[in-house]
Design brief:
The chain is mainly α. The chain folds into two domains: 3-204, Hypothetical protein af1432 (Orthogonal Bundle), CATH 1.10.3210.10; 213-283, Winged helix-like DNA-binding domain superfamily/Winged helix DNA-binding domain (Arc Repressor Mutant, subunit A, Orthogonal Bundle). It is built from 17 helices and no strands. Helix 3 packs antiparallel against helix 4 (48-59) and helix 3 packs across helix 9. The radius of gyration is 19 Å and the shape is globular. Bound molecules: fe (ii) ion (FE2). Fe (ii) ion (FE2) is lined by residues 61-62, 90, 115-116.
């Protein structure tokens, strides 16, 4: 995939959809990782903006695997050196893809790039150590590992119990993982606030607006753009000018968005999403 290919107007949902089609297992893993990452961010008292950023970053953390061959992704057992190098490219590729979509996604891209860094500096792609690793990347590293351990994978080892997974995370705390974050995951597990071993999401607090408004993830890229301008208070004429489309095209997008959210006016929509306007600006 060339950078040009991902800067097309439909690129962001296409990127998400392509990742899901290419490797559905990774897409489902990403969604569960997003729930856990947002919960960890909540326990850390991060801002709503940071919770949203980590949620989206977790959703896209493995999107760079679009450039990894399926044979490599689904290989059972150790990879040879060339395949390992191919697989290890995915955090940097994912970060680059998101930056190519929009420079505004830089905070998300930074977390995606960092999700295979290790606390002791032995990770990749940049070999960052400790606090040098972006916090959101450190969160996703632990959340992703928890999910990998507790979920059966078609091409990997069977699922571990939550207790077994916690033992494993503790074993690597301070080496692979941020020692501040591992206890928070244990707390989440103990309170039944992560996906359990059978895949049931028991309960999750601190979920971002993107979860409270699942309609957001169903919008097309163009609808996202229209919505982001709308949430900044811009009028149809201005939005049409900025997007190089006709006013009637913008109105068509707006009516589709209104229908999706069950509202009848811009004011109603803004009121509905008023607590979640950061979601909109993230994708704007
Ligand atoms: Fe990854």
């Amino acid at each position: 995939m060339t950078p040009d290919a991902v800067t097309q107007p439909q690129s962001l949902p296409t990127l998400d959809g392509a990742a899901a089609i290419y490797d559905p297992d990774t897409a489902e893993h990403s969604l569960r990782t997003a729930h856990t990452s947002a919960s960890i961010a909540g326990l850390l008292n991060l801002s709503e903006q940071e919770i949203l950023t980590v949620w989206w970053a977790a959703m896209f953390h493995d999107v760079g695997k679009l450039t990894t061959r399926v044979e490599v992704l689904h290989q059972v057992g150790p990879l040879d050196e060339a395949d390992e190098l191919e697989l290890r490219a995915h955090p940097a590729v994912g970060g680059d893809l998101l930056l190519a979509v929009s420079p505004a996604l830089a905070p998300i891209a930074a977390a995606v790039r960092a999700h295979h860094e290790r606390w002791d500096g032995s990770g990749y792609p940049d070999g960052l150590k400790g606090d040098q690793i972006p916090l959101l990347g450190r969160i996703i590293a632990v959340a992703s590992k928890l999910d990998s351990l507790t979920r059966p994978r078609p091409y990997g080892p069977g699922a571990m119990s939550a207790a077994g997974a916690i033992d494993e995370l503790r074993r690597w705390s301070g080496r692979k993982f941020d020692p501040m974050i591992v206890p928070l995951v244990v707390e989440l597990c103990n309170n039944g606030r992560v996906v359990d071993a059978t895949g049931v999401l028991l309960s999750v607090q601190h979920l971002p607006e993107a979860v409270r408004f699942p309609q957001l993830s169903t919008l097309s890229a163009r609808q996202w753009e229209v919505l982001s301008h709308l949430m900044r208070g811009e009028r149809v004429r201005t939005i049409a000018d900025k997007l190089f489309v006709s006013e009637s095209t913008v109105r068509n997008h707006l009516s589709a968005i209104f229908e999706r959210f069950g509202v009848h006016s811009q004011a109603d929509l803004v009121a509905l999403l008023s607590g979640g306007d950061e979601v909109i600006t993230l994708k704007g």
